[in-house]
Amino acid sequence: MKKVLFAVMVVLALCAVAHADNYVNGYYRKDGTYVQGHYKTPSDNYFYNNYSSQGNYNPYTGKKGYKKSRSPYGY
Fold first, then answer.
1. How do the domains of the chain map onto residue ranges?
2. What mean pLDDT is predicted for residues 55-67?
3. Secondary structure class of 52 (helix, strand, coil)
4. Does the model's pTM come out above 0.85?
């Protein structure tokens, strides 16, 4: 039983590391606008894998996604 529990814990830990969000420090744009620090998910070129995509939820801000796909196929 301990081996099974340990194996499950290892798998969960690896999944958490693979999908970890990165913190981006705040910075100034060329036009002088300040961009506040924020969390960013790893890029994978999949529209629906973003916090701002419609149907998703941002756990850091509590806001629902609002962007709709431009593709007629939903991707």
1. 21-69
2. 89
3. coil
4. no
Question: DSSP letter at 17?
Answer: H
CA distance 68 to 55: 9
Other beta carbons within 10 Å of 51 = 19
Tell me how far apart the alpha carbons of residues 58 and 41 are, in angstroms, rounded to a whole number: 11
Give CA–CA dist 59/19, Å, rounded. Answer: 14
Q: What is the C-alpha to C-alpha distance for residues 75 and 64, in angstroms, rounded to an integer?
A: 18
pLDDT digits (tens, 9 = 90+) for 12-59: 655 544 567 889 999 999 999 999 999 888 878 887 888 888 888 888
CA 42 to chain centre: 7
Taking only Cα atoms into account, the Rg of the chain, rounded to an integer number of angstroms, comes to: 17
